[in-house]
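Final report, closing paragraph on structural work. Over the funding period we assembled a curated collection of sequence-structure pairs, and we close with a single example.
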Amino acid sequence: MPEGLNVEVAHKLSDHEHEATRSDRWHELVEVLEVAMLAIVAIATAWSGFQAAKWDSRQALLYGQSSRDRFQADDLSTAGGQTLVADSAGFNSWLQARSANDRTAMTILERRFSPEYHVAFEAWLKTDPFTNPKAPPGPAFMPQYINPRKQEAARINEEASRKFDEGTDARENADKYVRDTVLFASVLFLIAMAQRMKGRGSKLSLNIIAGALLVFVLISVVALPRA
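Its predicted structure, as stored:
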């Protein structure tokens, strides 16, 4: 074989070896990138699932507390209404005793008023209600009248509403973490597809899409509140 031909064959073999080496290095680099993305996805998926579970638990707790507070507020409101009914009945009896000019009965009935109603009753008397047409119809309509059970019921109802709203926010946060978990699964799918591809262009394209989606979902997870 001529010497020139041997040199040409040697060059071609050397070029093929360099191309094979570059190809191997490229595949190794892509594999390292894929392994890194898979590791990040595994950790991020576990974190998202953990946060979703914690927010679900928080939602259940807050909804339970809200329901408990509603029942307590209803009990207090009922008790406050019963107190007002008793005071109103006593006030009607007082009006009848006054019409009969029964001072003894009037005094007894006044003593039976609840403390809060009695304060409003004294204020009502000062408006000269029997001659003043602009006077309120009764002590319960006076600004001085305060029903502590009704007020406590209103406060607890507000607290129950706040807890319910927080529970709704917790549910939405859990849903967002579940959504991100699904997106992480999409990243895994894209990487798995890329690993099956033989062509460099298609393999690189799928990995780029997977990487971009991974970055997007990671930013979303970081931005979400933690339970």
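Helices lie at 3-99, 103-112, 115-125, 148-196, 200-223. The chain has one domain: 31-223. We thank the funder for supporting this effort.
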